[in-house]
Amino acid sequence: MRPNDDPPARSGQRARHGPGPEVGPVVVSEEALRERIAELGRDITADYAGRPPLLVGVLKGAFVFMSDLSRAIGLPVQVDFMAVASYGSATRTSGVVRIVKDLDADLAGQHVLVVEDIVDSGLTLNYLQRYLLARRPASLEVCALLVKDGQQRTALDLRYVGFHIPPDFVVGFGLDVDERLRNLPAVHAYDAGDPDV
Ligand code: IMP
Ligand code: MG
After folding, report:
1. Within 10 Å of residue 52's Cβ, how many Cβ atoms?
2. What is the pLDDT of residue 11?
3. Which of 117, 129, 125, 124 is nearest to 62 (CA)?
4. Ligand 1: which residue has its CA nearest to atom 9?
5. Helix (H, G, I), strand (E, B), or coil: what is residue 147?
6. N or C: which end of the chain has fewer CB within 10 A?
7. Which of 56, 84, 87 to mutate to test the pocket of ligand 1 (most atoms within 8 A of CB)?
8. Ligand 2 mean position to 6 CA, how many Å?
9. Sign (positive/negative) of CA torsion 44, 47, 52, 57?
C-alpha cells in the first residue's frame, strides 16, 4: 500500500486554519504524550491480563486520548463512548452534568475503564462514576490523561493519571474551547486575551 501522493487541491487554504494567537505555550508536548500513553498502555495491559476491559471514552474531549490509549493496550479491549456536557461554552465548570449520549454496551459483569481527557473540579467524573456503578460492572476504574492540581471539589479515586498540570485552561489533544482547537497535536495553554481591550 502506498500513501496518496496527490497534492491537496488548494493547498493555500491550509494556512487559514492555523491556531491563532490565543494558543499559548505547550503544556504537554507531543513526545511526552506519546511516551506517557505508551506507559499507561503497558500498565493497563499488565493489570488487566486475562480480563480485557471495556474502555468507556467520555466525549468529546477523550476521543484523541482514547484512540492512542486503546492502541497502546495489548489486550482485546472493547470500546464504547458516552457524551456528557458540563461546560456550555464557558471555560469554567457549571457543576451541572447532562448525559448527551448514553452507552450502547451492557455493563453487567464487565471490567469498565473510564477514559477521561481532563479532571478539573472532578464533578463530571464523580457523577459518571455513580451513574456507571449503578449498572453493576464487575469493576470500575478511571484513566484520566490530565488532572488539574488543587482544583478537585470532590474525592476521586483515579487509578491511572497521565499528567498533573497547573490549574489553567488548556486546549488541544481533544480539549476544546467553544468546540475549537481539539485537533492541536499537543496540549497548550489558552490565552483568552484581555476582556477589557
Ligand atoms: P470537571 O467536571 O470540572 O472536572 O470538568 C471536566 C470536563 O470539563 C472535562 O472533561 C473537559 O471536557 C472540561 N474541561 C475542564 N478543564 C478544561 C480545560 O482546561 N480545557 C478544556 N476543557 C476542560
Ligand atoms: Mg471531558
Report:
1. 18
2. 42
3. 117
4. 118
5. strand
6. N
7. 87
8. 36
9. negative
